[in-house]
Amino acid sequence: MKRYIFKKLIIGSAALFCFTGCSDILEEKPHDFYEPGYFKTEQGVIQGLTSHYAHLRWIYGQAYYYNSVQTGTDENTYGQQADGNFKDHDLSGVGVINAASSRADVVWNNSYNDINTASGIIENGAAVGIASSLIAESKFFRAFDYFLLVQNFGGVPLDLGAGELKFNSRPSRSSKRNTVPEVYTKAIFPDLKAAVNELPDAPRLTGTATKTLARLILSKAYLTYGWWLENPNNIPTYPDTPRTDPDGHNAQWYFQQAYDIALDGINNPGSYGLLPYYYDVNLGSNDRNKEIMLYADHTEESEYYNGASLTYGSGGSPDNFAGWMGTFNYTAIRSKNASGAAVSTVQRAADQFLGRPWVRMVPPIEVFTKTFAEKTNDSRYDGTFAAVYRGNWNLLGTGLTDVATLYNANGLPVKPGDAIVTFLNDEPATPITYPAGAGDNGVGAGVLPGRSDYVISPMGISRIVYPGLWKLGPYRTDNAGGLGQPNAGSTRPYPVAKFSELYFVAAEAAVKGAAGATSARDLINVIRARAGKWRWDNNGKVAKTADNSTFLTSTTPAVIDINYILAERSREYYGEGYRWYDLVRTQKWNELAGQYSIGGSNYGQHTPEVVTRDIKPYHYLRPIPQGQLDGMEMSTAEKAAYQNPGY
After folding, report:
1. Cα-Cα-Cα-Cα dihedral of 146, 65, 503, 24, to 10°?
2. Angle at alpha carbon of residue 351, lines to 349 and 353, rounded to 5°
3. pLDDT tens for residues 106-151?
4. At 68, is the secondary structure helix, strand, or coil?
5. Exposed e or buried b for every residue in 468-496, given b needs 16+ CB within 10 A?
């Protein structure tokens, strides 16, 4: 039976659990109105619970939020077609983050609705007969939302108008921000500890919250707060407050808690676990696997349950369209027919290697020369990027279905499925001959002797031509021999939390001094051992049986540091929306992302340019959104005091 988690609970719409024979489905029914008293009914509480999962779709997969946690890091800079949303976040002199341009507003604008829903359920659930294990899901989500908020903005309001952590049933036009310690110790930690105690070991429905999921978020919150207390680089906080814990604990205590709870999650996995091969974690046909503990769900089976069109995405929420942002315009690739005329070789298709190109974000060259320098033994590069673009002109609807052969680099013949443009793993011994401008192939790719595919080396990657992000590419089962629906938002679930991160949290805490039987190196080597195992060469499109685990684990440094942890996190989670949080938590943003290299914005510009970012300490907090400031009935001075400094 299919299992879905669907729509956001807003005024005019609600969702309903099915507790009968369809008990593995979260089902929805529309409502003409929604009012606060509804939470005093069993049906209202149940619908509110469903909305927690649906609200994830308004954040995760939302491209402008995705931009805010990727662009400006060492994983992404802006692409050739980037608008101000992307250029602002790059902090490289082409834009400025401010209260109007920061797309962290997506978190602010969507988290508080869910927090208030959670408070309503927590207050009323028991009285209307809802089990404590279900109410614990609301505790989890209230903490989850506050954790997102405090990482982005610093101290945020706990009182929405009816008192701290109270369900608010009336509009409020004023607000007071709590401090960072108050948010953690009053909201995040108590709710997550309760969730760990009260949630089930196994999800009641596929994708719902469990003890292990709560352990992951709690351990990560402890880890983040420990860094905040330590504050190694003297990054300012706001509202201004001493870096002391109300409960009297120091940073080391929190690092130890993070380690212990993450180990509890590893040792008590419930229904979760690591998959044998990294490739399978992000394979579209294997979505909702046991490694992904929380996701923003979508489906190709119903527009109603998908929450968006199945044929055309407008680029608005709740579509899952983050994957478009890092896709270069491969449809510009050209080969020649028998008459010597240029024809389009790689058609836009609903294929995990392809999808809809927007050219908004691009990986800097260092992603390929440093982060993923090891591409032969470590399977994660191959399981992350679309590095080979293959001919698909034979698919139904292209107009070239009867053409068996075209001619590509060096005038050599190519057939459907052959490589047309390849991004090489390394710099070749023989220099690539690049054309001036776009050249015959349309995208400025070069030629190597004897090869029928055009090529680009890592040092030739530019703002306009670069490997795509395979792991977030679309997957559809309804293409029926054709191109499918490449202009629709992805109908795949967007991953939010993975079981594998428990190993990284525990390892990072160990590097920060937490003591235990399992060392940071041992924990990281569990991940690296898996990375060494191959069953499929993804970009080569061929079976590959290899186990390089011994090589990878033996080359792990004897003593690992935070920079090594961060490099491993990037190899594991590249492009999934973790990176800004990782760099801000560890206060390594400027050190690791302050400079990057990239080619130009025109075809044929393969000479790298070194770019320096201007990352200021105040950038470690995002600005309070302008819409929030405009909506409050407060004086100009009060609004200025409400805003984070620097903005």
Report:
1. 80
2. 110
3. 999 999 999 999 999 999 999 999 999 999 999 999 999 999 999 9
4. helix
5. bbbbbbbbbeebeebbbbbbbbbbbbbbb
